[in-house]
Write a structure and sequence with these properties.
81% of the residues lie in helices and 0% in strands. With 73 residues, the protein is an all-alpha fold. It has one domain. It is globular, with a radius of gyration of 11 Å. The model has no long low-confidence stretch (mean pLDDT 88).
């Protein structure tokens, strides 16, 4: 169910119904408590890089990279 929620959020960003920065903030807050490897793998290999590369301004990408890095540690 959580994986489906993340995929829906990503689709909302792609269609312009949600801001990429908002979804990344949500992911950063929840990634610390995520235990399922499959979900973490999907988030860190596909969703987060796509959001940062395509839907976040370049000036903000370093801030989000740092925020997500700290959340993962």
């Amino acid at each position: 169910m959580r994986k489906q929620v993340y995929n829906v959020l990503f689709d909302m960003v792609r269609t312009g119904h949600a801001a990429g920065s908002r979804v990344l903030t949500l992911i950063a807050k929840n990634i610390e408590d995520e235990k399922a490897e499959e979900i973490l793998d999907d988030l860190l290999k596909a969703i987060v890089p796509a959001l940062i590369k395509k839907y976040i301004p370049i000036t903000s990408s370093n801030k989000f990279n740092e925020k997500l890095f700290n959340s993962c540690i």
